Amino acid sequence: MGNIIQCCQTLSNYFKFKDAAAQGEAERSPLLSSDDSECESQSLPEDLEDDLLSIISTGITNPALEPEHFLFPDIILSSNLGGDVTLVEPMVCLLVSEEEEGVRTLEPGDEAQEWRNRWRNREFSEVETQTEVETHIGMGVQTQTESQEEDPEKREEEDDNETALPQVEEEETEIKQTLFLVDRLFLAAPHVKAPPCQTEESHEDDGQQQSDADKRKVSISDVVDLQEPDFTVRIQPPASESFELQVSGKMVVAELHQVLMEHEVTCHLTSFSLKLGGTALDSQSELRSIQGIQDGTLFKVVEDSYTVRDARLHLRHVRDLLKSLDPADAYNGVNCSSLSYLTLYTRGKDSDSVGTRRASEKESVDCSPPEYLLPGCKERPLTPLQPLRDDWKPLQCLRVLTMSSWNPPPGNRKMHGDLMYLNVVTMEDKELNITSSTRGFYLNQSTAFNFNPKPAVPKILCHSLVELLSQVSPAFRKTFSALQKKRVQQHPYERIAAPFQVFTWIARYGDHTLDCVRAEETHTSHMGQDENTAGQSRDWNEELQRCRELPRNSLQERLQRERSLFKANSDFVAAATRGAVAVIDGGNTAAHAAAVCDLRGAQAYASVDIEGLHTLGTAVVDYRGIRVIAQSIVPGILEKNQEQESVVYGSNDYGKTVFTHPRFLELLDKTSKPLRIQRHQVLDHNNSPVELCSGIETKGILGNDGRPYILDLLRTFPPDLNFQLSQTEERGEVPEECQSFGYPRRHHHSLASLRPELIDAFVQHRYELYLKMVSQGLVQREEEDKASEQSEESVCEPRTGDTSRASAEMEHQTRTGIMKACEAVGSVSDSCFDIRFNPDVCSPGVRFSPECVQEVQRQRRLLWDAAAFLLSNQIPAVLKDCLDHTAVPMDGATLTSVLHQRGVNVRYLGTLLRELDRGEERGRLSHIQRISISEVIIRSAKHIFRTYLQDVEPATFSAAEPTEEEPRESSCHVERKRLGQTDPHESMDDVIEKHGLQRISLLREMAIKTGIQVQLREYVFEARHKPVFGEEDVVNMFPVVKHIKPTASDATRLVQHAQVAVQQGLLKEGCELISQALTLFSSVCGVLHEDVCMCLRLLGRICYILGEYADALSHQEKVAITSERIQGIDHPQTIQDYIFLALYCFAGGQLSISLQLLYRARYLTLLMCGEDHPQVSMLDSMLGLVLHGLMEHELSLKFLQNALNLTSKYHGAMSLKHAQSHHLLATVFESKGDFRSSLQHEKEAYLIYRSQVGENHDSTKESSDYLKRLTQQAVVLQKAINHIYSDTPSACIQPPKFATPSLSSILQQLNLTCGIILIPLSAKEVADLRTELKEKAKITVEDLEKTT
Questions:
Q1: Main-chain phi, psi angles of 9, to 5 degrees
Q2: pTM value?
Q3: 680-683 and 626-631: which strand pairing?
């Protein structure tokens, strides 16, 4: 880990790479990013580019940054090659003030509120650093981080009402303060890619791209315009009292319509219009554009007549209302419903929000956890995963609501307005036949065997079905009213439909009930059709392409375009999933790989988003062992006699015939630069050279609509030569690094390609080498020039002609140096840095002209260099990330994410395991070994299971899936083969026992990857004579879907700017930018989206730092619910969000809620990866601290002792993290009165501090003082005990003082455990550091300017 001195040296030395000494390792949760999304990195502003160059300086020292000012010298930052700064510690806050002695804590109340107000109004100065991390912004789930321990706060007795964060005492003179915040959450910017080519020929293109970028530049005024304040309108429903509703001026009338359909008063209405002053409002107009609208404007709800479509929508809406508390849809994975249990822990019986409940510091609650949550327990029950909720108890309003057998209405009744007929059985067992007409709903006189459509007596006509049923059934009226009260008490995020369906791998076995809507949807095919409009099919390709062709000049136009594209893509994925489930086609191994490669290529081209270039809507669906690729249809392609005739670019027969087209060349040339594809020539069937800007298998088709389409993008990224072994392979060209790892190897298909993350890392690595070579050449020439000048001065004065010749010679030498550097790093240009790859150098059937032989060989060498870079740099980097806890995978998905962030494919997992076994620190990576072996087993079993399932009859699915032993043992054989093991007698049980795997975790992983849903019950895996699973245990099978993920480009750029601002200490500006990005993301994607979740997570963290706990709780509660809804209730990201919500709850005084959230997080962690994991050490430390605050000392000691053991294993016995664990145990033993044990643990902490940071460090001194105080108390206690047992009278002995923990001190320790570090620095010291960096940067900038 880099200490703070190394941090400054990193900022000052661009080319010096120095790994930090592992004195104590930071701990961090896994970075969870979607590996499919691609983000185009933005161009930095000029001032930020200057700040980036400020890294290039040398030798900065600052007294304020000496180790004695910090608890640990191994926090803050660590350096990467090239000087880009990567955060190792999750959060560091530098509280900067001119007077350090002014720091103190305040009690909650007016003073604390005044301090928060001062924070809101404070100006934040810049700290000029630019950072880079290995993740992309729009990838889904940004995770929060686990922390390195930091300075133990002064152990003084404080009042229980003190707050945790340091407060700055008001002085007579004004004190300027700055908060410098660095957090892994704020360092999720995309890779800073190598700069574009700077040749003279490229200046014009770059200028054109710059002008296009200027056109798309986000206008802050436009975003602020989107964030205009809400206003209040009044809604007047028919036959009801009016009510107030808060709306936004940007809301369109159609959105207000949807809001009213969810409102408690008007939820039963679906077919209505809104009128203002007698004028009906246009559904697509914005409220602010309506003439005469103002605060308090009255809108009247006017009932409209029904059509067949409206009647069906109304029936579906009534069904949704009646089932709104039933989790059946979430269990069955329909209607975009998903599970959420957060409010079960954050809301009490009064259903108040977590942010509004009254704070109670020492609540009288039962703090004892269930037995299975205690440290050391091996029991892993499944039923607590989905606890029963009182608010989910079914409230049955009707016994039956179904379509009548008399449907459809006869012709004569259609003439009277009949639309459809319904059958209803009320709770009073009264059978009703209802007619749905254009005017509303009424009872008819039909029976089960007699059709009589005449209205029943008394004649009751109601516009909504709910109104009619309320009049004829008192039980319905009473129950529906109670259901409505419970429904509106739910958190809004629990009711909103997710954009994509989330499936749960385990579910309770529920009773099957009557459902008319479900029955109708089952018998009606919706493949390619609008599910709400019978008979109207949707042209998915036309819809998607029209969305892409929408104008994109202004912010409003881009928002509308991206919103339409997101909605169309979401609907397409849903339709593709339904179609794949209904129509399953065959597949093989190569087809499975080709589908994923094709989707990855489609995502890449969609991210580049070149105007005029069209890609197909694409989704990949795995269902019941079959992989289906669903794509929209190119207009006219099915009308051609032969598909070959429609291909005007690329090849359709593996290179036998090759075509090119100027229109496609022009469009694809624009994508070649961001995708790093080299423009190249191949030979066609006539041996004529054909120019391409993509892989040869990429096909260009001109549709009947005139649009140019590209498809078959499976070779978008360069091949991985490590898995391209051929019979004619020249062994001499294989690098030694690859040979040492046993590569190249034969793969089961030829589509193995390098990941885009690896390409970015490799290009960045080569760019740093390029800069280093050019810089060294400049320095060498400057030294030679100085030497020649000195020799010339000693001889004679230089002439004017000699000076010009010297200048020309220097320029020639500079260009020569650049050319040599370009050739050395493999640049396609000899005048600037520009690395690109030829995707066809290894494609079968591709032929090159003799003139291109050298270029092809150079491209193969470049690909081999990239393959060697993966083995020699990226795989060790993954292990280093796991070793220093920069990444802490918890399951197979997070491990895959960690590998992908470094550009390592999962097929290298065996190589990773072998490297792990060779390492000296393999004991500290035992959790990585377990997860990796589990992933190998599960993936092997998935491939075998997929093949096996294709031959199983559908009638025997449930019997075949859980009880089949052949795939289980075969996967063990495949797993041994992948790991290089040859023991044929080793069974799966032996492997599980040998590596300490957890069977319940394997079940979870297998179910998630294959789409199996099992019944929620307790499984006895140790049973030898009884099957673990029965036929009824397989509840369902779900499709596993992968698709393109569009997002909001302007919002992404705003978040990138916000992250840069926060990294520079501009916390206020960063918060404003994140709020603006949140508005844009919500406008495009809706509120239940990973990007919206990311923005809320950032805002919650900022609010917490500023002491605004209520706002932090509100944001984080939304984050946790969203993670449950879109990621899953047991996803690692959900666990992280629970943990930080628990922290915020504790800070807000809600100790019992905090404890319950931590218990839930610990249970989910145990279920996922077991107790032997570094994540559990952080959880147990937090649980011990919270229980300490609740005076539950015995329970606290159990969790803290387990945290101590895990810390020793995964951080080292002499790590500073271990010292903090000893100190926490010492404080609990002190409160308990066990001074001997307290002294023992604090002595251990003192020895670690003295060994790691020295005698003079503040933490060592504080530990020493604490030891003295403990010794004095122990002496006093011993004297008191001796006096009690002594018969001799003596003077009164003063009783010992037993320390009681203050909530503020506990919160400080919780902050340390979670990675929040407050460090005081004076403004003068920061200003001096900034000035010194700028001075050093000027010199280096001048040197770099000479190179161009």
A1: -65, -35
A2: 0.80
A3: unpaired
